[in-house]
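Appendix B. Extra example for self-study. Work through it before the problem class; the solution is given directly after the inputs so you can check yourself.
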Amino acid sequence: MNWPIFAIIISLLSFLVAAYFYRWVNALPTADGNLASIGKLVRDGAYTFLKTEYRVLLKFIGVVVFLILLFYPAPIWMGKPLDNITMAVAYVAGSVLSAIAGWIGISIATIANVKAATAARNGIQTSFMAGFRGGAVMGMAVVGTSLAGASILYLLTKHSEIVLAFSFGASSLALFAKAGGGIFTKTADIAADLTGKVELGIPEDDPRNPAVIADNVGDNVGDVAGMGADLFDSNIASIAAAIVLAAPLGQVDLIFAFGGFGLLSSIIGVLVARVGKKGNPGRALNNGTYITTAIFAVMTFAATLYFGFEMRLWLATFIGLMAGTVIGFTSELFTSDSGKPVALVAEASKSGPAFTIITGFSYGLLSSFPAILGIAVAALASYKVCEPLGAGYPLLGISLAAVGMLSIVGMIISNDAYGPIVDNARGLAEMGGLGDKVLEITDQLDAAGNTAKAITKGFSIGAAGLTVIALLAAYQEIVRSKTGEILSFSILDPLVFFGLMTGIAVPAVFSALLMMGVSRNAQRMVAEIHRQFDEIPGLREGQVGVLPDYTRCIDIATVGAIKELIPAGLMTIIATLAVGFIGGVSAIGGFLAGNITAGLLLALLMSNSGGMWDNAKKFIEAGNFGGKGSDAHKASVIGDTVGDPFKDTAGPSINTQITVVSLVASLSASLFMAFSIFG
Amino acid sequence: MNWPIFAIIISLLSFLVAAYFYRWVNALPTADGNLASIGKLVRDGAYTFLKTEYRVLLKFIGVVVFLILLFYPAPIWMGKPLDNITMAVAYVAGSVLSAIAGWIGISIATIANVKAATAARNGIQTSFMAGFRGGAVMGMAVVGTSLAGASILYLLTKHSEIVLAFSFGASSLALFAKAGGGIFTKTADIAADLTGKVELGIPEDDPRNPAVIADNVGDNVGDVAGMGADLFDSNIASIAAAIVLAAPLGQVDLIFAFGGFGLLSSIIGVLVARVGKKGNPGRALNNGTYITTAIFAVMTFAATLYFGFEMRLWLATFIGLMAGTVIGFTSELFTSDSGKPVALVAEASKSGPAFTIITGFSYGLLSSFPAILGIAVAALASYKVCEPLGAGYPLLGISLAAVGMLSIVGMIISNDAYGPIVDNARGLAEMGGLGDKVLEITDQLDAAGNTAKAITKGFSIGAAGLTVIALLAAYQEIVRSKTGEILSFSILDPLVFFGLMTGIAVPAVFSALLMMGVSRNAQRMVAEIHRQFDEIPGLREGQVGVLPDYTRCIDIATVGAIKELIPAGLMTIIATLAVGFIGGVSAIGGFLAGNITAGLLLALLMSNSGGMWDNAKKFIEAGNFGGKGSDAHKASVIGDTVGDPFKDTAGPSINTQITVVSLVASLSASLFMAFSIFG
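Solution. C-alpha cells for the complete assembly:
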C-alpha cells in the first residue's frame, strides 16, 4: 500500500463531496425581495476584505520567500541552493492552498447564508442542511488541500523539513486570516452593538445601522475564513511534526494512513449528518462529531491490525482523540448556557457589571484547569505507551496524539463554519423582512452553532497545545539530525530559562496588541456611524429608501484590521528570531515551552470567559434575573462586549501565534546553531 | 569575622530602631473629639481579625507539625527522629516570629494612623514622619526577626534544610495573612463603595456607612500585616535557598554578611528619611529607597574587597539589586497617574466600561513584558557572571541575585506600610471631622503612598520570581546531596512536561478561588449593610448619635475571609503533593517552573491592570474627561471595582502561593524520591 497516494485519493474524494455540496446548496431557491441584494452586499464585503488581506499577504510572502531563498534550510552559500528553492516553493504552496481553501469557504458561506434564510420559511430541515453542507464545503476543502499538499510534497521530495515549510506557509496565512479576521469581526460587532442596541435602541441586524453589513461580513471573514485557516494550519503542523519524528523510524506511512482515514471518517460524518423535522440541530452536530470519532477509531484500529502497524502507535493516536473529546466537552460545560458557571455569571450581574467581569474572569481561569490537565495527561500517556518501542518512539507518540486529536478536523471545521452561516442567515432574514417564524427557526439554528463553536474552540486549543509539544520534539530531532547533539532543554540551564521567561511574555503582548487594535478600530467605526446618522437625512428615522453607506464601515474594518494586525504579527516573528540569535537553540527550546504554557492559559481563559459572558447575556435575555432591559441585563451586555475581543480575536489567535513561533523556530534551527551570541 | 553573629547584632540594632520609632510615634499628640474612639474601633477590629486568623492558623500549624514529626526531612522510621523534631521547631519558629512581626506592625499602624491625622493639622512634615516611622517599625521588625531567626537556627544546627523549614513556617503564615487579609480588605472596600458611593451618594469614609470601619481595618490587615508577612516570607526564602546552594561551596558566610549589610542599609535609610516643610512626600519615599540601594551597593562592595569575598558573587548580588530597581520603575511607569497608559485607560472610559476593562487588561498584559524580561536577564547575567567560578557557583549566582533584590526589603516594607497608615489617617480625619485642610494634606500623603505601593509590588513580584528559581536550584541540590543524581529537568521529559502543565494551572485556579471569595463575601456584606440601613432608624438620614453596627461588618469580613481562603490554600498544597507523588522529583521540577512562569504572568497582569484602573479613576476625578459624575467616571469606577480583587487580593497573593509551593516541594524531596508512581 502506498499511503501518501492513499491520502491523495481520499483528498480527491473530499473535493468531490465538496463540489457536490456546493452544487446542492447553490441549487436551493432564494427568496424574492431584497434578500439577494443584501446577500450580495455581504458577499462583496467579504471579498473586499479577502482581497485586501491577500494583497498585504502577498508582500509578506514575498519578503519571506526572499529570506528562505537566502537562508533556509541553510544559508545559500553554505548548503545546496536547490534545497532553498524547494523550500520556497513549499512555503508558497502552503500559503496559496490555504488561501484558496479560504476563498472557497467564503464563496459558499455567502451563498449558503441566503439559502438557509430562504429555506427557513419551510421549517428547520432544509435550512439546517444549507448551513451544515455550506460549512462542510469549507471543511472538505481545507482538509483535502492540506492533506493532498503535504502528501504530494513528501512524495516528490521525501524531505520532512519541506513539509514544515509548507506548514509555515499555511501559518503565515492563518496569522493574517485569524487575527485580521478577528479584529475585523469584533470591530464591526462592537461598533454595531454600541451604536445600534445601546445608543439608539434599535434591534440587532436593523438595516438602518451602517455597521450591520460589516457585522455580517465579519462573521464570514473571522469565523469561516479565519477559523478555517487556523485549523488548516494546526492540522498540517501536526502532520509535519509527526513526519519529522517518524522519518528516522521509518514510520511515515502511518501518518499518511491515519491522515487519510481521518479525512475519510469526516467525509462519512458529513454525508450522514441530518436533522429530523422537529429535530434538535445541536444534537445533530454533536452526533456527527461522535460518529466521525467512532468511525475513525474503528477504521484505524482495523488498519493497524490488517496492515501490521504498531498497535502502541495506534493507541497514542487514540489517546489524543479521546483527550480532544474531553477538552471539547469541558469547554462546553463551562460555556454552555444551561450550565452552572454561566448561570452564576448571570446572577452576579445583579450586583453590577464589576461582578459580571470578576465572576466570568474567575471561571475563565478555573476552566483552564481541565483542558490543561487533559493535554498534560495525553502527552504523558502517549509517551509512556510508546516507550517500550525504543528511542524516538515516545516523542513520536506525543505527535501522534496531536494527529489523533486533529484527525476529525474535517468534521470540526464543518460544524464550526455552520455557525457563522446560520448567524448570517438570521441577520439576512431580519434585514430582508422574512418574518418572525423564520427568525425563530434561524435563532434555533444559531444557538446550536454557538454550542458547536465552544467545543471546536476547546478542540483547536488542545490540538495546538499537543502540536507544539510535537513541534518542540521535532525541533530537537532536527538539531539532532544536523549535529548529532541531543538537546535536553533543562529548565535550570540559564539559556533555557531565559527562553522560557521571554516565551511566556509573547502571547501576553500578542493578545494585548490585538485587543487594543479592536478597541481602537471600534472607536473609529463608532465615529463613522455617528457621522452617517448626523449627515444622512432620514436615516435615523428609518425613512423608506434611505440607506446608510455600508461600504465605508466595511472599509474601516478592513483597513483597520490589517493595520492593527501587522505589529502583533511582526513582534511574534522578531521575538523568536531575537531569542534564537541571542540564546541559540537551547533558549529556543525554553522559549517554545514558555510560549505553549502561557499561550494555552491565556487562550483558554479568554475563549472561555468570553463565551461565558456571551451566554450569560443570552441567559438573562431568556427572561432570567429580570430579563431584557433590567440592570442585570445591562451589566451582562458590558460583560459580553469585554468578551468579544477575548473570545473571537485574541483567544483563538493565540493558537496561530504559537504555531507560527514553533515553525519559525524549527526552520531556523540551522541558523541559530551557526549564529548566536550565547548559544 | 563570624557573619551569622554579625547578622544577629544588626538585627538587634534594628529592634532598637523599631523601639525608638514606636515610642517616637506614640508620644505624638492625639486630637480631641471622637478621633481616639474611632481609632480604637479600627484597632480593635484589626486585632479581632488577627486573633481569628491566628486561631485558625494554630490548627493548621498543628497539623503541619504533626506531619513534619512523622515525615520530614525523612520518615521518622527511616531517618533520625531528632532531625524531625528540630525541623518542627524551626517551622514553628518561622510562623511564630512572622506572626509576632505582624502583630507589632498592626499595633503601631493603628496608633500611627491617629497620630498622622492629628499631626496633619500643623502641616505635612510631622504627619509624614508619623506615617513613615510607623511603617518603619514594621519594616525593622520583619527584617530583624527573619534575619535573626535564620542566623540563630543556622548557628545552632549548621543544617541548611532547617532554614527551609523556618521559611516554610513563615510561608504558612504569609498564605493566611496575605490571601486572608486581601479578601478581608477588598470585601470591605467593595461593599463600602457600592453601598456608600454608588447607591447612597455619600462620600468615602462617611461614618454612616456600616462598612467604613471594616474598610479601614482592611487597610491594616491586608496592606500592613499581609504585605509584611509576604515580604518576611520572600526574604527568608531567598536567604534559605541561597544557604542551601552556598553550603556545599563553603560560602554561607557571604549570605549572612550581605543579609546583615542589607538590613544595616535599610536602618540608615529609614533614619535619614524626612520631608521638607513644602516637600514632596513621594520624592522623600523614593529618595529613601535610592539612598538605601546605594549604601548597600557600596558597603557590600567594600566588604567584598576587605574580607576577600568573591567579587563575582558580589556582582551577581548587584545585578539582582539593579533588576529590582528596574522592575519597580517600570511598574510605576505603567500604573502612575501621570503616565500614558493610565491616561489612555481613562480616555477609553469615555466609550463605556467595556473599553475601560479591555484597555486596562491589555496594558496589564503588556506591562508583564519588561518585568519578565528583567527577571530573565537578571537570572542569565548572574549565572554567566559566576560561571567561571566553577560548578555550583552559577546557580548560587542566581540565588544571590534574589538576595540582592531583597536586600533593601527593610526599606521597601517601611515605604509600603506607610501607605495604609496615611490612607487610614485620611479616613480618620474625615470621620473625626478634622476639616478640609487636614484632608488635603492626608490626600497628598496618600497619593505618595500609592506610587510607593506600585514600586513595592513590582519589587516583591520580581523577587519572588528570582527566589523561586533559586528554590528550584536548591531543590536540585537537595536531591543531589541525597542521591548524587543531578536532575536535569528536561522539558521533553514527559514527567517534567506533565509537571509544567499542571504547574501553570495552579496560580490560575488559586487566583480564581480568591477572587470568587471576594465577590461572594462582598455580596454578603452588601446585604448586611442594606439590612442596617433598613432596620436602624435615623441612620440613613445621619441623625446625630445614631451609629451603625460596625462590628457586624468586621465579623462578616473576618469570617468570610478565612472561610474563602482555606480551599485556595489547601488546593495549592494538595496539588503540589499530588504531582510529586504521581510524577516524582522530575515532575516537581516542571511543576515549579510552570508555577513561576504562569504565576509571574498573572501576578503582574493583575497587579498592574488593577493599579491602572484605580489611577484612571483618580485621573478622571482630578477633572479629566468630564471629571466626577461624568459617564467616563462611572465607567472608571467599574474598572476600579474589577481591579480591587485583582491588585489587592489575587495578584499579590500569587507571590506567596509560589513560595509555599516551592517550599513544600523542596521539603518533600525525600518523600517524592521514596514514594511516587511514575518518578
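Self-check: Chain B is about 85% helix and 0% strand. If your reasoning did not lead you there, revisit section 3.
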